[in-house]
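Saturday, quiet lab. Running sequence design on the structure tokens for the scaffold JK sent over.
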């Protein structure tokens, strides 16, 4: 039976729940593009079945931040996903902040080693440094999913080089996540 991966493309194209914006790039556009590319990779592998939170770029989920997050979680739970991956970009005051990181509900969750594998492969594919996997039980999408979940911060949208790489080559990031998923399931 196929492993069901729910891909949450973080944020909406406009408020409510629009993402960060810097260096002429919008977080929701990057998360949308990376999610689409990851979906294509997973769907081409019969071991997986994938579903997107935003199947087209105009989709707006919810009428507030909370209902936007709830719509994503409820869809994944109702679908019976085996794993939940939420795609985001990071932001910081300093344009020098950089690298990829991940968040999980707990260290004992199966999502922890999955997040580690994803970060390892993001580093291989993109060259961005790995900042680590952090436990954040307060994050809505990690706390309310019925399956192991990880939130991936691809890179910093406030870092000009990383913003450029994420917007110009989303496939690189999708491939990193995909390879990490494959490694986690012993397929590499």
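Result came back. Writing it out in full:
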């Amino acid at each position: 039976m196929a492993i069901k991966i729910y891909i949450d493309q973080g944020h909406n194209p406009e408020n409510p729940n629009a993402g960060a914006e810097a260096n002429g790039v919008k977080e929701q556009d990057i998360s949308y593009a990376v999610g689409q590319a990851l979906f294509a990779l997973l769907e081409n592998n019969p071991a997986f079945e994938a579903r997107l939170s935003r199947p087209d770029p105009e989709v707006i989920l919810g009428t507030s931040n909370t209902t936007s997050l709830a719509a994503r979680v409820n869809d994944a739970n109702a679908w019976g996903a085996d794993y939940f991956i939420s795609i985001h970009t990071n932001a910081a005051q300093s344009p020098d902040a950089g690298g990829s990181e991940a968040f999980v509900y707990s260290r004992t969750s199966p999502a922890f080693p999955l997040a580690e594998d994803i970060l390892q492969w993001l580093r291989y594919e993109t060259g961005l440094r790995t900042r680590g996997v952090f436990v954040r039980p307060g994050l809505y999408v990690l706390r309310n999913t019925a399956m192991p979940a990880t939130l991936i911060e691809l890179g910093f949208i406030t870092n000009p080089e990383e913003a450029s790489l994420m917007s110009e080559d989303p496939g690189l990031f999708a491939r990193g996540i995909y390879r990490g998923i494959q490694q986690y399931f012993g397929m590499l």
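Notes for JK: The chain has a mean pLDDT of 97. The first strand starts at residue 3 and ends at 9. Ask whether to fix the surface positions before the next round.
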